[in-house]
Description:
The chain has helices spanning about 10-20, 25-30, 40-50, 60-75, 75-90, 95-110, 110-130. By secondary structure, the protein is mostly helical. It has 2 domains: about 1-55, no CATH class; about 60-130, AhpD-like, CATH 1.20.1290.10. The model has no long low-confidence stretch (mean pLDDT about 95).
Amino acid sequence: MPASTASDRYIQGMATRRAVLGDRHVDKAEQTKTAFDEPFQELITEAAWGHVWSRPDFTLRERSIVTIALLAALGQDEEVAMHVRATANTGATPEDLREVMLHVAIYAGVPVANHAIKIIKTTLADMKEQST
C-alpha cells in the first residue's frame, strides 16, 4: 500500500507487525504479495496488527502468549511456529510457552497440546541453533 494512501491504523499495524514478527519476515511477505492476496495483507495489517496487537491493555508478551494458545488449540501449526519465533521480539519465554500449553491441554485437549509442544520444542531448538 503506498504510504500516501495508508490509513493511520495501517501504519500503526505495520509498525507493530514489524516489532513482533521482525523486518525480515514482513519484508518477505510484502515482497511476495500479489494482487490476489494484497487485500488480505492490508486486512491483517489493519485489523490484527493495527486494531488488536496495538492496543495498550496487554503487553506484546501477553498477546504473544494468548495468540500461541489460540493457534495451538486451532491446530495452526505454521502459525504456531511463526509466533514462537516472534517470542524473540515479544519477550514471551519458554517457561511462558510451557505454562500456556498446560492450559491448552486442559481447555483444548491433550492431543492438541502434545502436538503443539512438539512444534514449540522444534522451533525453540532451531532458534537456539541459529543464534549460536
